[in-house]
Amino acid sequence: MTETTQLRLTEIFYSIQGESAAAGRPCVFVRLSRCNLRCTWCDTTYSFKGGDQSSFDAVLEEIAGYGCNLVEITGGEPLLQEAVLPFMTRLCDEGYEVLIETSGSLDISPIDDRVCVIMDFKAPGSGMVDKNLWSNVDALQSKDELKFVLLDRADFDWAVETCRERELFGRVKDVHFSPVHGVLDPSLLAEWILEEKLPVRLNLQVHKFLGVE
Ligand SMILES: C[S@@+](CC[C@H](N)C(=O)[O-])C[C@H]1O[C@@H](n2cnc3c(N)ncnc32)[C@H](O)[C@@H]1O
Ligand SMILES: Nc1nc2[nH]cc(C(=O)O)c2c(=O)[nH]1
Ligand code: SF4
Ligand SMILES: [Mg+2]
Questions:
Q1: Which of 13, 174, 178, when mutated, tests ligand 1's pocket best, judged by the most ligand atoms within 8 Å of its CB?
Q2: Domain containing 151: what range?
Q3: Residue 1 in domain
Q4: Ligand 1 nearest atom to the CA of residue 42, by list position
Q5: Closest Cα partner for 172 from 212, 123, 137, 204?
Q6: Does the beta carbon of 42 sit less than 6 angstroms from any atom of ligand 3?
Q7: What does the pLDDT read at residue 3?
Q8: What is the structure's pLDDT at 119?
Q9: Which pTM value belongs to this model?
Q10: Domain CATH code at residue 11
Q11: What is the pLDDT at residue 108?
């Protein structure tokens, strides 16, 4: 069987990484089309439909044109396209530092070990909490990151309980708590984190404060 070497893409762009432990670093983003979830607060609904089929070679050429060694694969939900797995391996082989941002609803175990997985389990306020694939916790490695995007105090309490019960603190490089942008006041989330003395990183979407993509 021949392996598919095409990806359905919404966009490729170069910007300041706004999220994760790599926040603040120049990064090339490859946004794949389609998503199996519908988070109530999703800021990327334009990736759900459309997109163009592009060959690995064309995508690699465009990435190389930016002259930046950090590449993030996102979406939509990047793991919906099986071809993303060999594509990430190719990026690693070519010496790129590769991040993937994924929802935690699809199996992360086939991802190349050199890729940093940023897995975003969904809290109840997203409307998608039933989609979390908890077996993914076992596939997480110490180089990976976990993220919880929080709508309100109920989401915060759920995330803390989830991290404690599932022993997620210390499992990965970072656990990020992020407010839903423009809804949950970041100062309030900061207060809650300090009060609870949580070993998490407050993650604000830097690009939205810069007004860039
Ligand atoms: C658009 S998603 C694409 C990757 C994957 N589908 C996921 O959810 O992780 C990228 C990141 O943006 C976050 N995000 C989307 N809308 C947001 C919002 N309104 N406020 C804060 N973070 C948001 C998601 O939670 C996720 O961490
Ligand atoms: N600047 C910038 N940083 C990001 N980090 C993760 C993003 C995403 O949509 O996955 C994102 C994004 O959309 N823009
Ligand atoms: S999983 Fe990611 S892309 Fe899909 S709806 Fe949720 S935030 Fe948006
Ligand atoms: Mg984004």
A1: 178
A2: 6-210
A3: no
A4: 16
A5: 137
A6: yes
A7: 73
A8: 98
A9: 0.98
A10: 3.20.20.70
A11: 98
Q: In the chain, how many domains are there? A: 1
| Cα separation, 180 vs 25, whole angstroms | 22
pLDDT along the chain (213 residues), means of 10: 85 98 98 98 98 97 98 98 98 98 98 98 98 98 98 98 97 98 98 98 97 95
Residue 22 inside a domain? The answer is yes
Tell me whether residue 63 is annotated as binding: no
Q: Whose CA is nearest to atom 6 of ligand 3?
A: 39
H-run or E-run covering 17: none
129 lines ligand 3 (CB under 6 A): no
The pLDDT of residue 2: 59
> Is 92 annotated among the ligand-binding residues?
no
Residue 161 lies in a domain: yes
Residue 170 belongs to some domain of the structure: yes
Between CA 146 and CA 41 the distance in angstroms is 19
